[in-house]
Design a protein that fits this description.
Elements: H1 7-20, H2 22-32, E1 41-46, E2 50-55, E3 59-64, H3 73-90
Antiparallel strand pairs: 1-2, 2-3
Helix pairs in contact: 1-2, 2-3
Length: about 100
């Protein structure tokens, strides 16, 4: 796992995702992580290739970005894309501006 992000950046992204977007993480895990029955999901890691979640009993699920990220601002766009793709796959209406 390569990462263009420092430990501080990874921690900030994880904190933001877990504090403000826990529901979105669960949608991503259910729709794109192959765990449609997951009941909890928290962001546990971020690197250039994927975002990783810890679900339910501690299982880790990696969801690839679909491209290699090289800069922090790309993470927001990539998470929004994953969220919208997961909503589509699950038949959910995504929120407007994320």
């Amino acid at each position: 796992m390569s990462s263009p992000f420092t430990d501080d950046v990874v921690e900030a992204i994880k904190r933001h995702m877990n504090d403000d977007h826990a529901g979105d993480a669960l949608i991503i895990v259910r729709g794109l992580g192959g765990r449609p029955d997951a009941s909890t999901a928290s962001t546990s890691h971020v690197d250039a290739e994927a975002i990783e979640f810890t679900i339910d009993g501690g299982e880790r699920v990696r969801v690839p970005w679909g491209e290699t990220l090289t800069e922090r601002p790309q993470v927001r766009m990539a998470v929004v894309r994953l969220y919208r793709d997961a909503c589509l796959k699950l038949g959910l209406q995504p929120r407007g501006e994320h």
